[in-house]
Amino acid sequence: MDSMHTRRIFLARGLTILSAASTLPAFIQKTAEALNNPADSPLTQTAAGRGDDRILVIVQLAGGNDGLSTVIPVDNDDYRNARPTLAVTQNLLSLGGNSNLALHPNLQGFKSLYDAGQMSIVLGAGYPNPNRSHFRSTEIWQTADPVNIDSTGWMGRYFDAQCSGQDPIKSETAISIGSLSPMTLKGDIFQPTSLQNPQNFQWLLGQGNSRQATSLRKAYQLLNGINPKCAICTNTGLNFLQRTALDAELSGRDIRAATEDHQNAVSYPNSQFANSLSMVARMIIANMPTRVYYVSISGFDTHAAQQRTHDNLMTELSDGLTAFINDLKASGNIDRTLVVTFSEFGRRVAENASAGTDHGTAAPMFVFGGSITPGLLGAQPSVAPSDLSMGDLKFTTDFRCVYTGILQDWLGTKQTTEILDGQFKPVSIVKA
Amino acid sequence: MGEDMQPNQYLQTAWYDPSFKWDWRTASHLMNRAGFSGTAQEIDQLVALGPLDAIQHLIYYQSIPDSSPYMQFGAISDIDIGDFRQIRFFRDLTPDERREFLLLKLAAGAGKMDDMRCWWLNRMVQTKRPLEEKMTLLWHGLFVSAFMDVQNAYHMYLQNELFRRFAVGNVQDLTLQVSKDPAMLRYLNNNQNVRGHPNENYARELMELFTMGIGNYTEDDVRESARAWTGWTFVGDNFVFNDFQHDYGEKTFLGQTGNFNGQDIVEIIFQQPATPRHFALKLLQFFGSDEPAPPELVLALGQTFQDENWEMAPVLQKLFSSTWFYSEPVMRSKVKTPAELVVGSLRKLNGSSPNPQALLFSMQMMGQELFEAPNVGGWPVGKNWINTSTLFARYDMPAFLVTGRRPIIPGSAWNDNSPALQEFNTQYSPELQLAQAGASTTNSAVDWYIRQLIQDSVDPAKRSALISYLNNSDSTEDMPLNLTDQSLHARLLGLVQLIMAMPEYQLC
Known about the structure:
The complex is a heterodimer of chains A (about 425) and B (about 500).
Chain A: H1 3-12, H2 26-36, E1 55-62, E2 71-73, H3 77-82, E3 93-94, E4 101-103, H4 108-115, E5 119-126, H5 134-143, H6 154-162, E6 174-177, E7 193-195, H7 211-223, H8 237-261, H9 272-285, E8 292-298, H10 306-330, E9 337-343, E10 363-369, E11 375-377, E12 397-398, H11 399-410, H12 416-420
Parallel strand pairs in A: 1-8, 1-9, 5-11, 5-12, 6-7, 6-8
Antiparallel strand pairs in A: 2-4, 3-4, 5-10, 9-10
Helix pairs in contact in A: 4-10, 8-9, 9-10
Chain B: H1 24-34, H2 40-49, H3 51-59, H4 88-91, H5 95-126, H6 130-142, H7 147-150, H8 153-165, H9 171-179, H10 182-187, H11 201-211, H12 219-228, E1 232-235, E2 238-241, E3 251-253, E4 256-258, H13 262-269, H14 274-287, H15 295-307, H16 312-320, H17 338-349, H18 357-365, H19 388-403, H20 419-423, H21 430-437, H22 442-454, H23 460-471, H24 488-500
Helix pairs in contact in B: 1-2, 2-3, 5-17, 6-8, 9-13, 11-12, 14-15, 17-19, 18-19, 19-24, 22-23, 22-24
């Protein structure tokens, strides 16, 4: 790619905010090339040599989803005894086979995706010496490190590993929806893009073509401009703020264009979660260079009067994700997208006196997409009292085995051991 | 004092060192941290008092009349959506009617919460006792309860007043009062913690997040102390000990065995070595540095807590007087929380308090909706406030302050004309401020605003960019400013918003 071409693409992509192209740090130049010529990009080079546009969508169920009210043991006395008021026994959606498992009645959308071979369930996902603190356990899932306090996420380290030298990868390679950015996506070098809604994703005062707006914009760019000496990778104080301002400016136009100029192919239910997913779908349909999206749904910390809250959450989760998958199907993006859910823990097997459940351990993960191994993966932990550990399920699949499957078989990296700080047997979530 | 400070110097009184300077910079630092940033007059006043008197003026504020607004609650029964499920009227409704009724009640409560957010922001702006509101904010982010789960605006208000009452009071007493607080009892489900089937939520978070920190207790300690908290509940707006639901059996907690109740649990927790460290860490982070404080300092300040019998005032005096507090790695290093950013900006611009309703939207975009912490762990810290989303929210906020409106985007369908935003119209006059400051040229106006807003020198290239903007040319020449020229107004408002949209302005 010649430099004239690069420059033209810059202008076309709206990077004209950079008042003097000659002061561009190398990484921005490289990023622009990478965005427009994926096969050359270290970001998208894969072990198998695929020029790849695969997408991973991570869905966090914040608060600790009650796995036993989600994927339900059928006709199980131990389960009913432990859950005298909360056991879900009516209108179950059987998963068939010999599993003796069924889905919560409100997961009808999930059931149809399961039947269509576009959903799988990793049973009993957890980790050794489970921690029952929301924060620590969320951190463990996000950093993939159950032992040490780590300040980088497993996907953040994946992006860092793709980074050549000190040149960071463009921030919009990973996008989270919400006002806070999740640890999962943060690397030592890589910092993700976060946004709540595309309209607010800009410095509003400097927009427009008036003389005043133009002079404001010019000053703004100098005040938030790129200082080649400090734009690189340092993550403290002013430099961090400066770099975030740059990332925001670079991502902003792409994201607004993507979400404003593209339509969803299906209608979504009315919930914040579904709104986030519809925004993500538009970005996927617009062919954004983003590899990883992160969306969360919260409210799962059901210590008291669980049933109604959890029933509603199941509806919100299933209806939102089902619309999303159908949208990707209709727009021809389903085969290049893999969706995976996680929650920091499941809940205690026995219900408490408040018709709720306390913090527990292992829980199912859902996987969706057009290229996945359908069905049930791994084994459902036993709810028999003698099989429990301090009243909690024993995990059957280490979640890092799922991450290994994603990193190795979906994202195609050879650096899984380095990223996860250890070797884990991959769960075959991607169709061979 | 530079980075070569020795651990034994951290808590030494700063002004015993002859190289220490008590001036505009150090006084505004104290005001930023112990309060919500100061106007020029307030900072001048602190400089004149000298460091010790300035610190004591901030901490021992009881003699200063509380002139800031009180919350007007109106008919409390209108907003409680917790207890009326019992009443006959409700039982007679159809499921659909019940649903609608609940939603109405919830909306009324949510509206009341917006009133409370405005009220609290106004207090922070107007108070003559800034540390009282700052400590209330600290306790609010440490002993977390969120309206989303409490669903009772009045209880949220009572909790807020509890924090204010104990702002610089005794930490152990506050912890016990928090354990009896209706909002907290509901938020962490202790009102449903009963003999035979303990609900562990409060027992766990009390140790993990409020007082000791993770790793200093076992799962057994959680289970045993949950038993001690059984029967601690509330009726109406008051704490009630429900004798019948209390587990009177023997419990073993943190190595001690006895027939413990909640008060015993608090006493035992405050005997643990982890507890002073935990509070010291929280205090150093809140007032000092986003980066973890050196362990020697945590230990030393923890010892101060113990020496002072858990009284907050003398501990704060020690901290605000310390060499560490005024050291270079601490000064201007903290990312402002959204509350600090908004309240500080309001105070710096004119000290008046327009209806801050419009600012609530802006704060929500920055990730801080007061009374609605994202989870029981409280608010983010430091860099975690900053990402591509919240940074634009921060940069767009000043428009609300100086124009009362979101900026209009030409050609966008998104321009907001909602009455709530239109009503908010400040009378901010940069001309007046500059005239009072005697800044009559473009360079002196830029320098005055940098000193006022950033409180430190900035990169000369950035100063030049601001001057060029104000000159409306590429020149940085020092041009005379005609402050009576109407056409200058928009440009001056732009200058204020530009400085507030600098990375430097996000730090204090």
